[in-house]
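A quick word before the example. In earlier lectures we treated sequence and structure as two separate objects. From today on, think of them as two lines of the same record. Here is UPF0149 protein M5G11_09825 written that way.
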Amino acid sequence: MPNTNSPYTAFATLLSSNGHPVSPAELHGLLLGRSCAGAGFDAESWLADASELLENEPSDNVRNALIGLQEMVKGELTGDDITVVLLLPGDELPLTQRAEALGQWCQGFLSGFGLNSGGLVLSAEAREVLGDLDAISQIQDALEESDEGENDYMEVMEYVRIAPLLLFTELTKPAAPAAKPSLH
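And the structure line, produced from the sequence above:
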């Protein structure tokens, strides 16, 4: 019996029952991507970006859920013990569905990052992380139901969990003060 009380399932039900053909994973990825690119945590601009994915105007309960999601992400990224909990289906679902959601999360992240990263100078490491996420967004075809597939999924998921932290830390650290011109 699948756990219908998981945050993922509850959010998926809320979205589909309101006519939004989008996965919670993709929305969560979009939110984290824009946050990592320095979009800040203004609710209106987040709702504007999210509306693109939702394809129609969100009702109050969907808006509230999206704002709640943003508060959670803000807490995760700016809290003392920086950690990200990915909004993905639970282990009780088939691997193919979980891999598909992970791919959707990566697509959402890359979209959110791309929308907000104009003018950012990225380190080689940051560009590599984005390239990895792009590769992972194609993952669903590569994993098959097996112990090996499960292990691969867990490893990839662990990497995806750390990727936003690497980018957020790099791109939101305060700029070094400009060197004062030396007087000779």
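Notice the following. The chain has one domain: 7-170. We will return to this example when we discuss secondary structure assignment.
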